[in-house]
Amino acid sequence: MSLAQLIRERRSIRRFNRQPVAQELVVELLQRAVRLYGADEEPRWRCIYAGTEEARRRLADSMIAKTRQSRLVKLIPNKMVESFIQKFADIPASLIVVADADPDRRRQEENYASACGTLQLLQLLGWERGLGMAWDTERLIQNELFFENVGIGASEQFVGIMHMGYFDKTPRGRGRTPAEKKWTVFRADAR
Question: What residues does 135 pair with on adjacent strands?
Fold first, then answer.
């Protein structure tokens, strides 16, 4: 499969089957993604892996911990809250990615960009092997309680959670915005 075809055909997968994802495969794909990204310096980001049933359950609990403290959640039936937790606990593997924060804004942006670029490559490499992924940056989970529960330090920046697993059905692709709609020509005479 050509790279262009791989990029065109890759989809975010949100419904995974129960087939386990080997931690060794995730590490192998991540190592390949790091090599392909080819940063000049050692990447300044890290991953927290949740692959066991207990770890996935703890991650799901952590994702909703702050929300549980809200008065509004008390109005939601416990069965619905438990269903949300179970949905995320059933995902075969999740990779929490954090970049080093840095007082130098440029350096911090480079750390974040390096993590993002590597994750994009990870998705493509996974897709090549039949492994689907969805990159989760939901604002709902971005809070100090979640960060503390999963081990994100004060000197780190949350990049996202890459949920991953095998799937039975490939979702249809969505329409893509033509490049011309994102194109502006800078002119010297315009003011």
Answer: 162
Q: Is 177 part of any domain? A: no
Checking DSSP bridges between strand 156-165 and strand 93-100, what pairing results, if any?
antiparallel
Q: pLDDT (tens digit, 9 = 90+) per residue, 44-102?
A: 999 999 999 999 999 998 988 887 777 766 777 788 888 888 888 999 999 999 999 99
**CA separation for the pair 49, 53 (Å, rounded):** 12
Structure confidence at residue 55 (pLDDT): 94
Residue pointed to by tokens 């692709």: 173
Owning domain of residue 51: 3-168
Assigned token pair, 8: 């065109």
Closest CA to 120 of 130, 135, 103, 107: 135
Residue 174: inside a domain, yes or no?
no
What is the DSSP code (8-state) at residue 151?
T
Q: Is residue 176 part of a domain?
A: no
> Is position 17 within any domain?
yes
| CA atoms of 110 and 77, how far apart (whole Å) | 43
* 121 Cβ contact list (under 8 Å, min separation 6): 32, 33, 36, 37
The CATH number of whichever domain residue 63 belongs to comes to 3.40.109.10
